[in-house]
Amino acid sequence: MQQLLKLGTLSLALLTCQLASANEFYSADRQWLFGDWNGERKQLEDQGYKFTAAIMSQAATNLDGGYNDNNTLENAGQLTLGANFDLNKIAGWENTTAGLMITKRDGNSLTLERIKDPRASTLGNTQEIYGRGKIWRLTQAWIKTGFDDNKVQFKIGRMGMSDDFNSSQCEFQNLLLCGGQLGKSIGSIWYNWPVGVWGTNLKYQFAPAWSLGLGVYEVNPDNVKTQSNSDGFNLDMDNVEGATIPLELAWKPKLAAFNSLPGEYKVGALYSTAEAKDIRSGEMQDSKYSFWLNAQQQLTQHGTDPKRGLYISFNGVVNDKATTTVESTQQLALWYKGPFDSRPNDSIGLGFANYVVNDRVTDKQIATNEGRGYYSYDAIASDYVPIQRDELNVELNYTYQWSPAVMLRPNLQYIYQPTGVKEVEDAWVAGLSMKVNF
């Protein structure tokens, strides 16, 4: 497959032509770009077969600042092909579903090309769909079944960890403002989309608004290899190094303080049995851990439409300081759905996200440089190790939801202290996300 950017550009060109001709192909209420296959798609869904196909494109250009201020435009793309099966309808298996998802990523990252000092380890990214290789991947292949009127749900197969734990909304293009946070700070043991791993989890809804989840997932470095497409479909467990075990308590209330509007609040912890290197001593530890808090609340409702209004979310992660480069992350986001009566499905978003680098890592970097005779930032020396502290990401965006099939999201991003290196000039980035559901 050639670059997904070409596919995205072609799709947009086709859409623009259809708009100009006022053809129903581009109508504002179209569910899928290619329609419902003369009614067959809806018929298949009624029989238990639901198919999805989508292209996501994220372009970004550096307006000012960064390590290299020569302007360029970089695009990252992702193709997603999926299917969900209602096995109650198909085979009579009550409360049982299955999922299959294949993904392909392509393109380049503006952060790697222009924003960061190439000698420093990457923290944030201006394009959240970049990463984990330009290869095809089996992202999901699982089956889930429910018991006791679906109060207990059991899931097993290949899946991403943030599908069911530390999950969060994605209303932004910036990496740390989108989705689950753990995979962005402890990516060696926690694998976000599009990486799938062998795992299983159990969710128990013990009260109407309360549930408890427990999972077990393999820690296998083979799952994040990126040399060839076969790496994305590797199903063996030959090099498993341990297991990541998350536990999460979730509360979904309708709070009277917010006019009985819905929210979701989750606290969780994980324990990994895989060995991890101690940052200070260099010795191997037999485990590591993390804690998190996810909170999302609808604050207002616009008129009688329950989906329109102001939303707020906070996500925080605290990692094992002895073994982790990023000690913690914090994310605060606000977005307003349906800001205009003429555009009830659009939204405006503003988000702030921060990486906090472990001070033990900073101290080690300083000591390494001093041992090499460097007592200040050296922009030229190849063996100089940039000193990393905190990185702050800010994004303001507008989501233009032309139809359920087509979304455009222009955005402006500000990166303070890229990769935590204060000597690198703060960066301003303009971005554009596009998603087309086929």
From TrEMBL:
Cellular compartments per GO CC: membrane
Cited Pfam families: OprB (PF04966)
Signal peptide, first to last residue: 1-22
GO MF annotation list: porin activity
UniProt entry tagged with the keyword Signal: yes
UniProt GO BP: carbohydrate transport
Keywords: Signal
This protein's record includes keyword GTP-binding: no
Family designation: Belongs to the OprB family.
Protein name, per record: Porin
